[in-house]
Amino acid sequence: MSSTFGKIFRVTTFGESHCKGVGVVVDGCPPGLELSETDIQFQLDRRKPGQSKLTTERKESDQVVILSGVENGRSLGTPIGLMVANRDQRPGDYSDMQAIPRPSHADFTYQVKYGIRAGSGGGRASARETIGRVAAGAIAEKVLRQVYGVQIVAWVSAVGDIDASQPDMENITRQAVDKNLVRCPDQAAAAKITGAITEAKNAKDSLGGVVSCVCRNLPAGLGEPVFDKLDALLAMAMLSIPATKGFEVGSGFAGARMRGSQHNDPFIQKGKRLGTVTNYSGGIQGGISNAEPVYFRVAFKPPATIGREQATADFKGKETVLAARGRHDPCVVTRAVPIVETMAALVLLDCAMRQSTRCFKDLTPC
């Protein structure tokens, strides 16, 4: 079930880039949760296209409609169906690419795998598929907030060769992230990133970047031993987002250059709980959360569809030149921020619900 994610809080996305609509079915949401379209729309608005001159020119309002699973403003515990219509469709933009697989895009691999593919946009490989993830993740965020007080904040930390300074991860807020168009809390770096994306767009080219994320107020004990470790599940979730090419948690690859005496996180009493002095582990030890903030970074490649002419070959192997048409992001990271946040929420809530099944005292459910 390649379109389904999660064990207890399960989401199944559907739809292609240029079909009538996209959406998600959420199964496992607890009953009695106050829920309306407004709870979901905030993150969809941060993800939607056409937000500025730095993103794709496709104009979609991405208004979500709750189809099922909610009555009188409360979840029923039954599957929640969410739908967003595709309105600004231009399948004709892709006529030249029917016979030519775009370099570094999924056109070739989807064709090989299925023997057929969606001819408009990227089909299921399009970032438009992430609408369902974001909608479902917004629900997961609300549950995590109400039950644990969890806060999840992501931001753009690099674009191309421009690196932003690291913010105070204990206090960084979404309001600070959203103060500029590129969602980078370092205002000086944000100005440089804005210029770099503009230059790439004008040159009919694209740029990659990095999104960082911190998850605060998590309880200890989330994540399963061996194969379903919390960091492994986060890695799977993040690398399932279109255009991702790398993931690291805590010290990441930099930790490989340190000694154990430098990298170890000594324990200390923090109020009523045991905590750590440093957090090179990124809040995860042995694949299980230790109640320190979980933080990680996700690398996004430059978007594959660019307007600049590229020498390539068509599906028959004949050499040709492709200058892609259509409306595409010159850099995806500014719109990827809410996708990273909501995918993290899906992982964390599912892990929390799995952990709650172990809540027994003297063989009696808590």
Topology, pairings included?
Elements lengths: L3 E2 L4 E5 L6 E7 L9 H11 L16 E5 L1 E2 L2 E2 L4 E6 L21 H8 L15 H19 L2 E9 L2 E2 L10 H4 L9 H16 L6 E8 L13 H10 L4 E6 L10 H4 L3 E4 L2 E4 L7 E2 L2 E2 L4 E7 L9 E4 L5 E4 L10 H24 L3 E2 L2 E2 L1
Antiparallel strand pairs: 1-2, 2-3, 3-7, 4-7, 5-6, 8-9, 8-10, 10-16, 11-16, 12-13, 14-15, 17-18, 19-20
User: How many discrete structural domains?
Assistant: 1
Q: What's the helix-strand series? A: EEEHEEEEHHEEHHEHEHEEEEEEEHEE
- In which order are the strands of the major sheet placed? 1-2-3-7-4
Low-confidence stretches: none
Q: What share of residues is helical? A: 25-40%
Total number of strands = 20
Mean pLDDT across residues: 93
Return the structural class.
alpha+beta
Do you know the CATH architecture? 4-Layer Sandwich
Biggest beta sheet summary: 5 strands, antiparallel
Identify the CATH homologous superfamily. Chorismate synthase AroC
User: What is the CATH topology classification name?
Assistant: Chorismate synthase, AroC fold
CATH class, named Alpha Beta
* Helical run tally: 8
Shape: globular
Q: Beta fraction of the residues?
A: 15-25%
Q: How far apart, in Å, are the first and last alpha carbons?
A: 33 Å
Task: Give the C-alpha Rg.
Answer: 21 Å
